UniProtKB/TrEMBL annotation:
PROSITE patterns to which the protein is assigned, alphabetical: CARRIER
Record-annotated Carrier domain positions: 1-74
Coiled coil: none
Protein name: Carrier domain-containing protein
Phylogenetic placement of the source organism: Bacteria, Bacillati, Actinomycetota, Actinomycetes, Micromonosporales
SUPFAM superfamilies attached to this UniProt entry: ACP-like
InterPro entries: ACP-like_sf (IPR036736), PP-bd_ACP (IPR009081)
Originating species: Dactylosporangium matsuzakiense
Length: 98
């Protein structure tokens, strides 16, 4: 499991669901809209990410799908941050990464 899949599985477990694999479906495990709201709130509190609800319903809501949504949201936030930086700021950031 990826770190994000592990985090999703832990949050789901804390919310009363018991995923055995990353392909277990949220709703098949007994998840409902109020539990989904709790999941979204936990992701925002723990990871600082606001997941778009509609993206979670584009595919079956599995641990793996939720983790991919987290990864996409994190990437979009990073790209938006880079977009607001000057070339000099980006260069300085990249030089620190080496």
């Amino acid at each position: 499991m990826t770190p994000d899949e592990t985090a999703v599985a832990r949050i789901w477990t804390d919310l009363g669901l018991r995923p055995a694999t990353v392909e277990d479906d949220f709703f098949d495990l007994g998840g409902e809209s109020l539990v989904l709201v709790g999941f979204l709130a936990r992701v925002q509190a723990e990871m600082g990410l606001e997941l778009p609800v509609d993206e979670l319903f584009d595919e079956d809501l599995t641990v793996a799908a939720a983790a991919r949504a987290i990864e996409r949201t994190r990437l979009a936030a990073a790209l938006a941050e880079l977009d607001g930086m000057s070339d000099a700021e980006v260069a300085a950031l990249l030089s620190r990464a080496e």
